[in-house]
Specification:
268 residues, mainly alpha, Serine Threonine Protein Phosphatase 5, Tetratricopeptide repeat, 15 helices, repeat, ANK repeat
Amino acid sequence: MCKMSFKKETPLANAAFWAARRGNLALLRLLLNSGRVDVDCRDSHGTTLLMVASYAGHIDCVRELVLQGADINLQRESGTTALFFAAQQGHNDVVRFLFEFGASTECRTKDGGTALLAASQYGHMQVVETLLKHGANIHDQLYDGATALFLAAQGGYLDVIRLLLSSGAKVNQPRQDGTTALLKAANKGYNDVIKELLKFSPTLGILKNGTSALHAAVLSGNIKTVALLLEAGADPALRNKANELPAELTKNERILRLLRSKEGHRKS
C-alpha cells in the first residue's frame, strides 16, 4: 500500500536529513535515538529520511531507518518512494533490502512512473532484474503510454532491452502519440538496439503517428540504421502522413542510393 500521510518536522530534522544524505550513520542514529526526530519526518516536498538515504545509496542508513520503523512505502508529493529513488539511481543493494521489508512496486508518480520505469529509463539492468523478480509489472506505462522497453530504447540500453524482451515486453506497444521503441531507436541511430528489437518482429510499416521507423532513420541521417531496416523488410515506397517518401526527407546521396537500390529490387 502506498501512502501520502504527512508528519511534522522537528527542529533537528535538518540535521537528520544531512546525515541521511551524507551517509553519516553515527549522527543519524544519535538523532533518532534522542527521541526528538521522527523517523518519518518530512521536508516541504514530503521527502523522508529513507528516501534521501535510498537515493544516495547509503545502505547502512537505509537499514537503520527501516529497523527504527520507517514506513517504506510513504510517497513524496510527486508520488516517488524510497524504492523509486533507489531504482532510479541504480542502487541494487538498497532495492533488494527494501523488498525484504515489504516495498511495493505499485506506487506511481504523478506522471505514472514506477520503480521499473525509472530503472529502465536510466539503464540499470541489475535493478530491472531485481524488480521483475519481485513482481514488478513489465507492462507498466507512464501516463503518456511510454513503457519500460520504450524508455530503455530511448536511452540505448541494450542489456536492459534484452532482459525486458526476454521477459515478455511487447515490442510494438506504442506511446500515446504512436511512437514505438523501434522508431525511437531508429531516430537516435542505436543500431545494436535495433538489431535486438528486429528479432521480435516489430512493425516496420506506418505507425499511428503517421510515420515509420525508416522515415525516422532517414531523417536521422544514419546510413547503417537505414540499411538495417531495409534489410529487415522496411518498404522505401511507403509514404508518411505528409505523403512523403523516405527518399524525400534527405539529400544524403549514400542514403538515397540505398533507398533507390532497395526500391529497384522490390520492383524487380
